[in-house]
Amino acid sequence: MSGLGEFTIQATQGQARRGSLVTAHGTIQTPVFMAVGTKATVKALTPEDLVECGTQVVLGNTYHLHLRPGEKLIQKMGGLHKFMNWRGPILTDSGGFQVFSLKGLRQMSEEGVEFRSHLDGGKYFISPEKSMEIQMDLGSDIIMAFDECLQHPATDEQIQKSMDLTHRWLIRSKAAMTRKESLLFGIVQGGLSLEHRMKSMEQITSVDLPGYALGGFSVGEPIHLMHELLPKIVPHMPTKKPRYLMGVGTPLDLILSVDAGIDMFDCVMPTRVARNGTLYTWQGKVSIKRVEYKEDPGPLDPECDCYTCKNYSRAYLRHLFLSGEILGSRLNTIHNIYFYMKLMERSREAIEKGHWEEFRNQMLSRFTKRSTPH
After folding, report:
1. Catalytically active residues, by annotation
2. Which of 175, 197, 179 lies closest to 187 in space, CA to CA?
3. Cα separation, 168 vs 324, whole angstroms
4. What predicted TM-score, i.e. pTM, was given to this entire model?
5. Residues 176, 136: contact at Cβ < 8 Å?
């Protein structure tokens, strides 16, 4: 495909970038937040909902889809796009994070990782080659290299060993990639040490790829440490390639990371907290179960024009949540996903029009406050 993998930067403001990335299923406008569809579904939403919310990219989870229903079945059904009826770009992770979070259920070697399924205890093995095979069978637009993700805290020796293994696995991942329609991204590790991060970046970026990610954040470390490290790390990532921060985060995290020069994000945060009654608005964070909303006829967010805010009151959303109704999860999730997409859209616009700093400061003041009553 002509231009496949081409990344163009259209505007910058400080370190913040406004760009676009060409994939086999469409051009992604960055900065972008990617909705997490772990098991080939973004919980509570249809693909049509996602489109209406402005979603550009959906994530699939290699580990979960490998276990159930299996990548061969998905391939037989026409690939992940057709299987889940999503026509836009799909990014799949390598399965590394899930496998390494199994702890007592896994055994690692140079070759790969043997693990027991959390579903039925069955034995499985994933190597860099197997991870690539699964993701290619799924038909992913962006494929993540197989890496080792360490939990925080880790010793210098553990971090160094892990980084070296991740580098060797990246070389094997690239060698195993045969699907021309897919873009392979490498993952920089290195824990919370700037020195290790820079060394890992040197290792990973020595392999020429369409994009690079920062992994190993949001794995238990105090979040302020990530905020402090990013401005020191990100400017050293390749300028002409997309930069992806994996598994992050809150609106505050996103704004600070865009400011540091990150282009792509994903996180279960907006969908997970929506199901727990926490909603992000342009006035700040709202806990819909609070008694003050019991008789509140107003929309969740007067500044928002999502389906939920246009049609339902805070009193009704509170009632649904307290009653444990499925519709509550659905309406809350629609709002949070819409809000995240709109936050990124406004970020792109602010960088384009040259008022990023003003927009950033406005968002930081809103999201450094605690839950906001109306």
Report:
1. 93, 266
2. 197
3. 48
4. 0.96
5. no
